[in-house]
Amino acid sequence: MKSITILIADDEPEIADLIELHLEKEGYCCLKVPDGLEAIAAIQSHAIDLAILDIMMPKLNGFEATRQIRAQYHLPIIFLSAKGTDLDKITGLVSGADDYMTKPFNPMELVARVNAQLRRSKQLNQPPAANKTVLEAGGMFIYPEQRTVSLYGETIEITPKEFDILFLLASYPKKVFSVENIFQQVWGETYYEGSNTVMVHIRTLRKKLGEDIHQTKLIKTVWGVGYTFNG
After folding, report:
1. Fewer Cβ close by (within 10 Å): the C or N end of the chain?
2. Residues 94 and 140 in one domain
3. What molecular functions are annotated in GO for this chain (predicted)?
């Protein structure tokens, strides 16, 4: 059975060692590097299954490292950073990260998120089902097998999680999904109070869909309840 290798990129050795300790207890192999440039080199030279990246690293920060990684690779990426504002999280998700945790962090929660991301990655790499249907609404086409989205003829660059959220909502137009329900179905784990992960992803997704310039709002907020697809 192939061992799973996780890249830890953090310039604070004590944090990298702590993460390694908990991940190795789960049976994962770990590769540690101190900066963004070495993170990219490690992914190019090793079979990395998931990357945990700090943002404020020397030589190349986590945002730019993620953009360069995403140009060639599709492995799950989790940001782990002391930068915890909504703007930081939005920037991280827009750059291509799949999840974002702030320091200080609970190591067991990080392990749970790693496990969830690896499960999702494994599911996405399975052969596609033959009955997946292209969804269309308001000039937008969603292609489940290719996991791509086009809007008025132009391909929209979205992250895997953004695609999962959009596909879920568009598959059940007019149905209202709570934040908790979206989190459970897309992330495949129990929702925890205080998480704004879903809201941040939807905010960036709306921006990429051009809801600030198009009159049609494809994702509608139902105040106090959740979100629905308005196609």
Report:
1. N
2. no
3. phosphorelay response regulator activity; transcription cis-regulatory region binding
